[in-house]
Amino acid sequence: MIKVRKIIPLWLTGLVNFFVAWSSSGAGLDRFSDIITEKDNLSVLEHVKTLSSDYYSGRKLASQGNIDSQDYLVTSLKADSIPAFNNQYRHSFTKSSFFQSKQGTNIIGCIQGTHHKDKYIVLTAHYDHLGTIRNKIYNGADDNASGTAALLLYAKLLKDNPLKHSVILLFTDGEEVDLLGAKAFISQQKKLLNNVKLNINLDMIAGSKNTKKLRFLSKDLPKILSSQQLDELNQLQAYFKKNSLTQLTAGFRRIKSVGSNVNRANWLMASDHGVFSKAGIPFVYFGVGTHKNYHSELDDYDKINKNLYLAAISVIFQQLVYIDNAMYEVAIPD
Length: 334
Fold this sequence. Notes:
Elements lengths: L8 H4 L2 H11 L12 H14 L12 H16 L10 E7 L4 E11 L4 E11 L4 E3 L2 E3 L2 H20 L4 E8 L7 H9 L7 E7 L12 E5 L7 H17 L5 E2 L22 H6 L4 E5 L18 H26 L3
Parallel strand pairs: 3-6, 3-7, 7-10, 8-9
Antiparallel strand pairs: 1-2, 2-6, 4-5, 8-10
Helix pairs in contact: 3-5, 7-9
């Protein structure tokens, strides 16, 4: 059980210095994860359970269940006093075809950084899923209520303890339909893109009960981190591979997706991070890869790996904080 502590000064005073001390002493990172309390763990699991319930009917783009899930996200952000991005939470876009047009809606919050207020880290997680198919609800607990709930928790943590860079919390719609929400954000925020330093994308971070590994993929990090910092990040990730329930592992297996006609061999474009990458923005993508419940009616709350999920949330958050501090160190001369 993680103990609730009133003050967690470690990450606020700089993870870079801590990591140097850790790497030389061999001490663990357990204390660092204490910012996430047992109450937070229960809250994030409740978010997953709610968003993947039958009430939202699989959250398909432009469906009533999708609209209701938008309301849930906005209500949750307001409850934690998370500022809206550009003074509004809902940012709509249109999917047009020969026969009809459908409206999608990204939900976006923004937390101002302490040092680089005009430089941004964009955290993404898509909240849409497949809806109801042949009278079976595809609830998408792992895909991607898991990532969506994690972003809601991170919003709460960062509101109380902001990073050095500003953080945009982007809950995308239409990811299951050609990454539409991420594409809409890039199109609508062209003036902002030069100031977006990094995208961290969470898509399926809970897996099934048999899932043992959290995987990650990154590209273009040398644009924002020095060679020494990249080496430190690699060491941190290697530590998590051996000393965390996530067994954090680089890369994804190249297999054809279960329950889908989509070939996920091109993991660089498998989710919203691919859109940011095409815009020249470095990314880190976290997910478990495909599993037996992927894109099926079996992807329900009671079938996710809750222990892996809670460990993944902590491991991802610690890497976020490290990269934020490391980018700040690189940017100091500017």
